[in-house]
């Protein structure tokens, strides 16, 4: 089996020619994967999963240098929970605040018995500063409240609030 090498320099540029670089991160990763694979064609999916688990660390732990918070959304109406789970509102909040927003956990009905180790549905917010995290949490809370109010079906309220999709810029 021929080993792949990443080429760090373009041959002939500035008279340096071809310089194999064993210290290149890509080359080291390829060499590592090739050395660890037991048989050709077996695949390296298990190695990738182990590496990803190692890099991500334990679940629920905020990476070093970041700040995190959670907002439980389990008890909000179904429509509000579904809309916050879509990509568009989460991306708009992330762009506005600079914090990463993810929906995690599992929905449990009120009064239902929760299995051991399970968490109710919540939004995890991780950001570079406490201000970014607080702003993102405020935006998620504001969005959930606005969506929850829309589900009440109060006559005239939907038109007064502007009906339709939630716009994080206006908060409606």
Automatic annotation (TrEMBL):
Pfam families in the record: KH_12
Highest taxon in the source lineage: Eukaryota
GO MF annotations, alphabetized: RNA binding
Domain ATP-dependent RNA helicase PRP5/DDX46/KHDC4 KH: 70-139
Coiled coil: none
Stretches that traverse the bilayer: none
Protein name stated in the entry: ATP-dependent RNA helicase PRP5/DDX46/KHDC4 KH domain-containing protein
Source organism: Polarella glacialis (Dinoflagellate)
Native organism taxonomy: Eukaryota, Sar, Alveolata, Dinophyceae, Suessiales
